[in-house]
Amino acid sequence: MFTQGSWLNPPKKQAVHASQLHVTTDAHTDFWRRTQYGFIRDSGHFLGLPADGDFTAQIHVAAQYSSLYDQAGLMVRIDEKNWIKFGVEFSDEQLLLSSVLTVENSDWAVSVAPAMPHGFWLRVTVSAGVIRVQYSTDGQRWPLLRLAPFPVAARYLVGPMCCTPERGGLEVVFSQFSCGPALQKDLHDLS
Prior knowledge:
CATH architecture of the domain at 49-154 and 174-180: Sandwich
Radius of gyration: 15 Å
Strand content: over 45%
Largest sheet: 8 strands, antiparallel
Distance between the termini: 24 Å
Number of helices: 0
């Protein structure tokens, strides 16, 4: 699956082994638009796979975060002004569940991440102008991370994302990626 996407800002060091994507981040990479800091950054690593219309995508992520703003997860992107990235980010000396929703300007929502020594899973569903983001520490139970309006588009790009704004060298392993029709589960169905 990882061989079918196209890179936005391909990392210098990346490889596909069996069903895993191994990435080492380049220095000073990030996705951000304006809010709080005033700058625009569109230099993060993103492997986008096309999704036509509504969809659900899922991935497993494992990394050893250690520096401020180290981050890895999933991204859904329409263009440089309309996207969301979400996953785990290192900030204030701890791991945080993090999401940045950008519709012209970026917001940032965080909460303390639970223990996840062997990585974590992410799931995103885009359906009828709404984006639903879930995470899992075991691949079985999927608590809600974010629910928000999201622009409707005929085609989205979805796939693994990682950035290191303050350094380079974060090693990330992405695996178990899937993308298919949008799940129509109740908001409180955590399966």
